[in-house]
Each structure stands twice: as C-alpha cells, then as structure tokens.
Amino acid sequence: MAKKRVLLLSEGFGAGHTQAAYALSSSLRKLAPNVQTRVLELGSFLNPRVAPLIITAYKKTIIKQPKLVGLMYRHQYKKSLNRLTTLALHRLFYTHTKSIVRQLRPDLIVCTHPIPSAVISRLKRLGIEVPLCTVITDYDAHGTWISPEVDQYLVSTSEVKYKLVQRGISTSKIQVTGIPVHPNFLEHPGKAEIRQKFGLKDMPTVLVMGGGWGMMNDEAIHSALARWGSSIQIIFCFGSNEKVLRKAERNPLFHHENIHLIGFTKEIDKLMEVSDLLITKPGGMTCTEGLAKGIPMLFHKPLPGQEEENCQYFTARGLGEPIQSNEVVDRWMNRLLYHYDEVTEKRQEHQRNVARFYPMQSAQKVLEMLDHGSEPPSSVTDYS
Asked: Domain spanning 186-354: which superfamily?
C-alpha cells in the first residue's frame, strides 16, 4: 500500500510558524508511520537569496518600529489577502509553487503561515486539486488566514473558532485542536540527567527566552533577574541572536556560577522540564510549549498584535502574567524561594490537565482528512 504524503508549508517570519509545522510533522509520524511528511519554508525554498533579506528587514521593523507593526496588524485585521495581492505574491515570489506541488504530489497540504495558505488557495482556484488545511498558530484570528479555498481550519481555541464563524466560515470547516507542539514537550524525562548535561544545579530555576529570534534584550529585566543569582539559577536563552549573546557574555553582571547563557538550541523542552518559571515573549508557539510543560509564565513586552492577544488569553486563564514592573519579577523570585512547594504543586496540576488543551488533536485531525481523501497517486516522491 502506497504511503500517504503530507506537505507542510510555512514561512520564516518568526520561528513559531515553522516550529508548528515540524511539531505536526513529528506527531504525524509518531501516530501513523505510514504517513510521509515534508516541511518547507516556501519562500526560502523558492528564493533562497531573496527571502533572507526580506525576513531580516521584517525582523528589524519589529524591533525598531513595533507600533507600526501593530498598526498594520489592526488595519488589516478583518481583511483577507485579496486576489490582487495573492497574484502579486505569486508573480514576484511564488512563481514555481505550482510545479513544486505537482512534483511532490501531496495527498494533503497543511499551511502554518497565512502567506503559503493564500498562495495554495490561489492555485486551487486555478485548478490544482489538493485538500488544504490551515493551522492558525496564534490565539487570535487575523483576516489574512482566511481564504474560501481552505478545506479545514485547525485553531487553538473555541474563541478563535467563534471569530472565524463571525467572518462567514462554516463551523464544519473549523476544528478546535490547540496549536501543535512537538511530542517531546509532552514527555517528562529524568531531571537529574538534564541538569548534568547542561551543567545545572538542583535548585529553583528560571528560564528566560526571547523567542526564536532572541528579541528579548531588556537590560532592566536582565539586571533585575541577575540580582537573584546567588539563590536562584537563571538560564538566559538568546535564540539565534548571536550579537546579544556575545554582549551578555562580556557583561560582568552575568559572570556568576548560577547564571547560564546559551544560544540557539533544539532542546528547549528539556530546559523547560528542569525550570520552574518561564519568562518569555508571548509568541503563540512558545506559550503553547510552556502550556504543554505546565510551567508558569511571565510575559515580557508583548508586540502589538498577535503577542498581545496571546498574552491576554493566557493571563485571563491564570496560566501566565505580564511583567508590568520589576516588582512582578521580585514577587515571583520570592515565591520560588519561600513557596516553592506551592509553585510545583500548581505546575503538577496543570500537567495533569494538559489533555484538555488537545496536545495531539491537530495530528489526529490531519490523519482524518487523509483517511477521507482520495487514494494517493502511484508515483512516489521521497519525502524523507
């Protein structure tokens, strides 16, 4: 019997979209070994020279002009990408998408970013016959995610489903599945081995993350945390921001045996496992990974738009708290020092209830779509 094939498309505008694609790919392989998956950042795959320049420009805009990004987000909030825009995207950047789809012959395309979803939607209007599933990777529903050609939406919460219904999407096309996380975040390996691997002590521990781009570069917060280094272990993870990492390594403030500085790592699940508090930018993917681990979260300066919505969602449910001042940090440090048992008990309660946030539902719904789809073509392309 020929294997079913799933093509997962993302874009590099923030690491969370692609992380969600890989997380879904891993879950599919775990649940159904007969399914082959392929993950592509579509723009980078088609234009490996131009795409990094565009992504870098986008990143600089977010860092230097976050209010402008928020203004654009709100201005376009209820608007889908219109046909003229998708035509322009296709002509300028995605010309060869159709040939990629024909070459790989997927039984199903899953998009974890709105741009490839819009591009594939256009191809479906032009006659490409392939089911399209769009996974919304935030706790909000921006209009750019919406296209009539999407066969199935997988969304994080019932609130996001409601927003889609309000915009005319049939309830039959929307499934509340949570945002997919890698299966590793649902496991709980031995903490002693993890601590030994990273050179950590068995003591209250805080993990500080700036997202995949390492954007959390707030000297006031870093200084407030570093003051607790004698009694609380602090792990600063700077992601792919090598410049900020090197600057921190030269700063005497961080020269303490209980303060650890690391760059990009694929083992965030392990660092979350041995940490007792996560301080992070409230990206949809990072928040969902923290949710899967049951770790309490403090949110640092949400970017206008998606991050604000994510922050509000988790704060309203008692799963996190925004850092409105250094007093919030100090209160949590005292909690870890003097009420550690209460913190760990509440975390264990969250872990026991993680099933209600649908950690594997995205993969299961994708498999259902495959089961109800057509038989795969005879020619098989290598998806490994």
From this structure: Glycogen Phosphorylase B; (3.40.50.2000)
- Joined together, the tokens standing for residue 188 give 């709980």
Q: How many CA atoms lie within 13 A of 219 on its CB side?
A: 6
Distance CA 336, CA 205 (A): 8
Query: DSSP of 122-191, one letter per residue?
Result: HHHHTT----EEEE--SSS--GGG--TT-SEEEES-HHHHHHHHHTT--GGGEEE------GGGG----H
DSSP states along 252-265: GGG-STTEEEE---
* Backbone torsions φ then ψ of 359, nearest 5 degrees: -60, -25
Tokens 């913190």 — which residue? Answer: 343
- Sign (positive or negative) of CA dihedral 51, 304, 133, 91: negative
pTM for the predicted model, two decimal places: 0.86
Ordered by start, the domain boundaries in the chain are 4-181+359-371, 186-354
Contact 210, 279 (CB under 8 A): no
The 10s digit of each residue's pLDDT in 225-280 is 888 999 999 999 988 788 888 888 899 988 999 999 999 899 999 999 999 999 99
Q: With contact defined as beta carbons under 8 Å apart, do 152 and 173 qualify?
A: yes
Counting Cβ atoms within 10 Å, is residue 320 exposed (0-12), middle (13-18) or buried (19+)? buried
pLDDT in tens, 106-157: 999 999 999 899 999 999 998 999 999 999 999 998 888 999 999 999 999 9
Architecture of domain 4-181+359-371: 3-Layer(aba) Sandwich (3.40)
